[in-house]
Amino acid sequence: MEEKSKVLIIGATGFLGFHLAQASCNFSHPTFALIRDSTSSSSTKLDKLRALSDAGVQFLKGSLDDEASLMEAVNQVDVVICAVSSKQALDQKLLIQIIKQNGSIKRFIPSEFGLDPDKVQISNMDYDFYARKAEIRRLVEAEGIPYTIISCNFFMSYLLPSLVQPGMKIPPRDKVTIFGDGNTKGVFVKVSDVADFTISSLDDPRTLNKVVYLRPEGNVYSLNELVEIWECKIGKKLEKNYVSEEELLKKIEETPYPDNMQLIFIYSAFIKGDQTYFDIEASSNGVDGSKLYPQLKHTTISEFLDTLLE
Ligand SMILES: NC(=O)c1ccc[n+]([C@@H]2O[C@H](COP(=O)([O-])OP(=O)(O)OC[C@H]3O[C@@H](n4cnc5c(N)ncnc54)[C@H](OP(=O)(O)O)[C@@H]3O)[C@@H](O)[C@H]2O)c1
């Protein structure tokens, strides 16, 4: 049997990283996690560490800003996956240098896990959210490090629990706001499914130096379609309030940062169509991850909305 790559996860106590570490173990990869000294101080983090240890994850003490610990960790593995938060994207620079020096890392998956920063059409609006991720892409390419980028679009836990209603926590039962004409399609993927796709891609030659886009069947809908699915589930028509592009842009301008980021992401996905306007096959370095791994069972938007019914 082919030997499974040894995987290092950086950020395993975080939201996405925890699922990545679990998926790595589920797919039988020897799995290591770089854990900071400060991590153990929180009880939720302690619970996560316990769960990861039970799953077989081996902990290595260290931090992205501690060169010696990074070198030691990178030396023990074949694949490095980074899942630090978007604010820390540029903190990956030292890690990239160390991977370059190491020279035998078979794959690096940087902390991207969202929309494609090279494709989003909201320049100058996002406070460099995507510019930081693009800078890391350019660095990885320039250093010639073997990579895979996971462009998974929105996690289901983001915006979908409210049916894309800013400021709400649950889906509407009477009135719903629809941005633009409501016909532009967006993508939501469950975080544990993102983790399964990511781990499936790391030993796959088809994903070497590629951007893996996720648009699984049952997970790509417009706002009008999302509302229609929800209306069917609750057996009731909702009153619709349409907010035009101009009105949304005005609201973004009037709302202080970072509160306006949610509106900016809505503008990007559901007005500009940044998750779906381009053809994956036509992009020179893109592959459709949803088609590469048909055996992976994933949660559809309809199944997710069922969990919100009560
Ligand atoms: N597509 C979407 O809808 C969506 C939504 C959310 C996130 N994301 C993306 O997913 C990725 C991960 O984000 P997240 O929200 O899961 O992050 P998170 O929950 O904030 O977790 C960050 C992790 O990084 C670790 N970390 C922080 N600084 C570190 C350092 N110096 N050295 C080593 N580890 C360090 C933290 O460890 P401690 O426990 O020690 O703090 C934690 O485990 C990001 O690229 C983000 O943009 C996408």
Query: What is the distance, rounded to the nearest whole angstrom, between the alpha carbons of the first and last residues?
Result: 46 Å
Shape: globular
Q: What percentage of amino acids are in beta strands?
A: 15-25%
Most strands sheet: 5 strands, parallel
Output the CATH homologous superfamily of the domain at 7-154 and 189-216 and 277-294.
Answer: NAD(P)-binding Rossmann-like Domain
Protein name: Probable pinoresinol-lariciresinol reductase 3
GO molecular function: oxidoreductase activity
Keywords: NADP, Oxidoreductase
InterPro entries: NAD(P)-bd_dom_sf, NmrA-like, NmrA-type/Isoflavone_red_sf, PCBER-like
Structure description:
By secondary structure, the protein is an alpha/beta fold. The protein has a domain of 194 residues: NAD(P)-binding Rossmann-like Domain (Rossmann fold), CATH 3.40.50. Helix 2 links the parallel strand 2 and strand 3. Helix 3 packs across helix 4. The chain is globular, with a radius of gyration of 20 Å. The N and C termini lie far apart (46 Å). The site of NADP nicotinamide-adenine-dinucleotide phosphate (NAP) has 30 residues, from helix 1 and strand 7. InterPro entries: NAD(P)-bd_dom_sf (IPR036291), NmrA-like (IPR008030), NmrA-type/Isoflavone_red_sf (IPR050608), PCBER-like (IPR045312). It comes from Cucurbita maxima. Keywords: NADP, Oxidoreductase.
